[in-house]
Amino acid sequence: MDVQSIRGKDETVATEARSELGIGIGEPPILPAGPVWVRVRLYKRPPQNMFVNGNRTRPKGKLLQASQSNSTEYTISMKPDTDNCLKFVLDALTGVGWMDDFQVCKLDAMKCYDSVAPFTGRTLIEFGSLDELVHF
After folding, report:
1. CB 82 within 8 A of CB 9
2. Best CA proximity match to 107, nearest among 132, 125, 133, 122
3. How many domains does the chain have?
4. How far apart are CA 80 and CA 57, in angstroms?
5. Is 122 domain-assigned?
């Protein structure tokens, strides 16, 4: 992840998250204290060669299989690095989801091709309090 390409985008992500979560500027984060878990799915736009005749509405091969199965996660190992993307997400959501990123104690991250039409790429983020997990 190129620093120049992401400069200022963390504020955009924070603004979108505030809007999605219904949190106004200056309001406290959802989880102001305590340990937090975070799950991030980074869905990257698939390359043109993964579609029949370049038609982005007709996936083929492994992308087609992933889009037709219950598992929509077709993992990839290429740039940008997953850990760098994750750090960006955690920094952007500090002050929105949690007060400080030291609260994040459990992480689950995966980078995949987007196998859901319209195959444009997206990021899904879930988080919650570790104190509220059911233990048995």
Report:
1. no
2. 125
3. 1
4. 25
5. yes
Helix or strand (DSSP H, E) at 31:
none
Across the range 72-91, mean pLDDT stands at 82
Domain membership of residue 136 (yes or no) is: no
d(CA 18, CA 124): 15
Tell me the C-alpha distance between 108 and 110, whole Å: 7
**pTM, 2 dp:** 0.75
Does 102 fall in a domain? yes
* pLDDT of amino acid 128: 93
Residue 71 placed within a domain: yes
| Residue 28 DSSP class | P
Structural domain of 76: 3-23+32-131
Give the count of beta carbons closer than 10 Å to the beta carbon of residue 127. 21
Residue 53 is encoded by which pair of tokens? 């005749």
